[in-house]
Amino acid sequence: MGTIVLKDVQKRFGDVVIIPGASLAIENGEFIVFVGPSGCGKSTLLRLIAGLEDVTAGEIIIDGADAAQLAPAKRGLSMVFQSYALYPHMSVRNNIAFGLKMAGMPKPEIEAKVTKAAQTLNLTDYLDRKPRQLSGGQRQRVAIGRAIVRQPKAFLFDEPLSNLDAALRVQMRLEIMQLHQTLGATMIYVTHDQVEAMTMADRIVVLNKGNVEQVGSPLDLYNNPDSLFVAGFIGSPKMNFISGEVAGQYKAQTIGVRPEHIALSSQSGAWEGTIALAEHLGADTFLHIDTKAGGRLTVRAAGEYDQGPGAKIWLTPEKNRIHRFDQNGRTIKNAA
Amino acid sequence: MARAVSLRRRTVATIAAWAIGFLIFFPILWTIITSFKTELEAFSTPPKFLFFEWTTENYGIVQERSNYLRFVSNSLILSIGSTLVALLFAIPAAWAMAFAPGKRTKDLLMWMLSTKMMPPVGALIPVYLIFRDMGLLDSRGGLIAVLFLLNLPIIVWMLYTYFKEIPGEILEAARMDGASLWKELVYVLAPMAVPGIASTLLLNIILAWNEAFWTLNLTTSAAAPLTAFIASYSSPEGLFWAKLSAASTMAIAPILVLGWFAQKQLVRGLTFGAVK
């Protein structure tokens, strides 16, 4: 089992409020991603759940029992750190076995578990090496191995892939998703990378300045963001925001349209503009277009787009894909 | 990026380095050479560098006149004793400051270091009077206490900089793995901090070994270390250069050997953990 419920969890450092009050219910086996810009409190929230920071107020209920005052090891959670945090003076074998040794498990049992974890993670050939003799991806696997041998109620990942290069990051992302499927364990994953959030999560928790902005499935957040912040954070390239006269026509303070929801035409359309820059990705082309209506807008065109910088162009947003926001940045529901 | 250094520049730099090294080492070399001369030759002008009658009689006389081994044992007890006592206090202190810093940790460190900026002679009279009243003059215990307090700030600073280099996440990982504070210390921190603790230990043994001000002022005979042994040969009735040199050579020999073996750690220690 691995249900985790946060009830109005607060964290202050002296007068500085990091988490004003977070509530959240995580079900057994869920893959939850905490996402948000740097300094939004996502790592702090994870560390509060882990027990590495003390809560100022509130409850952290793990499998029905309040764990807010328990020592980290007593909570039955495992953590994978950004820096891997392997014990540099121990072999891979001892790194993985350390938690079991601390728990006083008999040696043959430890040996069996370490062997099994090493097989799962393709580390069998490296068991006698020291961490410094491993590549970044292998170190990350050792860190994960150390987490899985303890058979925790839930796994906590603190930006585990941000030290890896791009190619390896994609590969490890898949491995972690695979691991989640195999183990079926609850996982909480912190990242600032919204692509990781979108691809991995069952549910995403978007944090902003310590507040939970919105919780929902990736597509739910993509299609129905509750606020300007979530709309801007989820999706790549970023949603275009237009305020002023154009927004007024839609009875909103600001309207938002995703780059993929704007149609292009060289003859006619809603907004006139000039292409300023074109980014060719092969499968897509991102056009940055200067418009009178809304300043510079980003538009995604499928495939290779034949018009280049300087070309005149017309933009038409998909009507039912326009997001409207009030002056507080909240979404105005019901299409106008 | 590797910089291309021309052969000429490298030659000049090498010669300069040797020259400076020789300049620094020369007084010690001269002391050692002088210790093998007779008193008469030690005074001769122009001084003789290598071509004189080598003799070891000074060492014999020095050993006869004063009990060298007693001074050595005092020096060993004082330097090692004071450093070990200091480590006992400094490890937990540096630990707390490195891994659980408070708002005033930095100020506290600066304040501790500032105590080293005062000339020790400023505290001589009160310390002397306290020692006299407590009957600690010329006692090893009293001197260990002084040397321990004297070097404590440096020891805490050094350990602090070493501990600072250990990533906190590794200790947190140990905590997540269920290690108690004690086990975290023994299995994770200590093995990682051993080089730092060792170089701190070595540097402070040397500092305590060479400390002359307090050891000369607070001892007479029973607790007198090698510094007093040397000083006893610069007598007011006339200088005995050769014997003084022999005594000095005997005094620095043990620590020189220790320093030779510990060179690598010492360089690291002297940079205060700034260089990885």
Descriptive keywords:
heterodimer; A: 336 residues; alpha+beta; Rossmann fold; OB fold (Dihydrolipoamide Acetyltransferase, E2P); six-stranded mixed sheet; five-stranded antiparallel sheet; 9 helices; 18 strands; B: 276 residues; mainly alpha; MetI-like fold
| Biggest sheet record of chain A | 6 strands, mixed
CATH-assigned homologous superfamily of the largest domain in chain A:
P-loop containing nucleotide triphosphate hydrolases
**How many strand segments of chain B?**
0
Q: What proportion strand of chain A?
A: 25-35%
Q: Please write the CATH class name of chain B.
A: Mainly Alpha
The CATH topology of the largest domain in chain A turns out to be Rossmann fold
Structure class of chain A: alpha+beta
Residue share in helix of chain A? 25-40%
CATH hierarchy: architecture of the largest domain in chain A: 3-Layer(aba) Sandwich
Protein name (chain A): ABC transporter ATP-binding protein
Keywords (chain A): ATP-binding, Nucleotide-binding
Organism (chain A): Taklimakanibacter albus
Organism (chain B): Taklimakanibacter albus
Describe the structure.
Chain A is an alpha+beta fold. Chain A has two domains: 4-230, P-loop containing nucleotide triphosphate hydrolases (Rossmann fold, 3-Layer(aba) Sandwich); 238-325, Beta Barrel (OB fold (Dihydrolipoamide Acetyltransferase, E2P)). Chain A is built from nine helices and 18 strands. Chain A has helices at residues 42-50, 92-102, 107-120, 136-148, 166-183, 194-200, 218-223, 228-233, 245-249; strands spanning 4-13, 16-26, 31-35, 57-62, 65-66, 77-80, 154-158, 186-191, 203-208, 211-216, 240-243, 254-257, 262-265, 271-280, 284-291, 295-302, 312-317, 323-325. In chain A, the strands form four sheets. Chain A has a six-stranded mixed β-sheet with strand order 6-7-8-3-9-10, sandwiched between helices. In chain A, a hairpin with a 2-residue loop joins strand 4 and strand 5. In chain A, helix 2 (92-102) packs across helix 3 (107-120), helix 2 (92-102) packs parallel to helix 4 (136-148) and helix 3 (107-120) crosses helix 4 (136-148). Chain A starts with a strand and ends in an 11-residue tail after the last strand. Chain B has one domain: MetI-like (MetI-like fold, Orthogonal Bundle), CATH 1.10.3720.10. With 276 residues, chain B is mainly α. Chain B is globular, with a radius of gyration of 23 Å. In chain B, 33% of the residues are buried. Classes of the chains: A alpha+beta (336), B mainly alpha (276). The interface between A and B is medium-sized, with 22 and 16 residues.
